[in-house]
Recover the amino acids of this structure.
């Protein structure tokens, strides 16, 4: 189920083929397994220490590494490649202020980046469809969707179904909102120690609530399912 970080360069080079990519953590893991059309995702990465650790303990024959769409992982590689190859990027997520601030910070780092942006709030499905049709005319090479699970996944699925032009699509969770606050959101020591969750929990109440409520539920269910199903847990 989970892909390897070494596949990212190859994914980026094949912009003539539509590919959509998402990143799962303990909060989104089971929701994704129940997501309609989840099979349309071409690559799935494990984003989070706990999910990665559990996989490597119980399914050691297929070890994986943590991969996320932020500057502690692959975001810098994607933006650098897009700038160097003059690719068109569209970012969708955050509120109007956050996405504008994030766009400006991306341009500070990558001055020649061809970037377009929109906030991640839509009134209804028709508005989403109309925006996707506008995107199709723009013909972007890369679409980055940061609207939270499952909205960001459903948005990329809709893009893949509706758009006639090819693109590479990434979900990015809270990356756009985080970048609006600080370009390199995570402290270097936090990144080195793999404690991104701890910094988020310290800064954001909703993350603390997830750690206290959702993570124990996930852990119990995962341990039960891995014991009963083994590798079939991902089906």
């Amino acid at each position: 189920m989970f892909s390897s970080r070494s596949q990212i360069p190859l994914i980026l080079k094949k912009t003539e083929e539509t590919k959509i990519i998402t990143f799962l953590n303990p909060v989104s893991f089971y929701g994704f397994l129940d997501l309609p059309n989840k099979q349309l995702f071409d690559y799935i990465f494990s984003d989070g220490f706990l999910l990665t650790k559990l996989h490597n303990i119980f399914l050691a024959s297929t070890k994986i590494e943590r991969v996320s769409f932020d500057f502690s992982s692959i975001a810098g590689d994607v933006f650098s490649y897009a700038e160097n190859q003059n690719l068109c990027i569209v970012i969708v997520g955050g509120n109007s202020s956050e996405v504008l601030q994030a766009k400006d910070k991306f341009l500070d780092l990558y001055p020649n980046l061809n970037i377009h942006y929109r906030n991640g709030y839509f009134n209804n499905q028709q508005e989403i469809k109309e925006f996707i049709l506008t995107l199709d005319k723009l013909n972007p090479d890369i679409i980055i969707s940061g609207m939270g699970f499952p909205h960001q996944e459903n948005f990329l699925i809709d893009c893949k179904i509706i758009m006639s032009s090819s693109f590479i699509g990434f979900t990015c969770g809270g990356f756009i909102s985080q970048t609006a606050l600080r370009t390199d959101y995570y402290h270097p020591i936090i990144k080195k120690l793999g404690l991104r969750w701890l910094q988020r929990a310290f800064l954001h109440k909703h993350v603390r609530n997830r750690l206290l409520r959702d993570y124990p539920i996930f852990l119990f269910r995962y341990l039960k399912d891995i014991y009963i199903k083994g590798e079939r847990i991902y089906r």
About this structure: The two ends are 9 Å apart (CA to CA). The chain has one domain: 5-234. Strands lie at 19-24, 43-46, 88-93, 114-118, 142-146, 168-171.
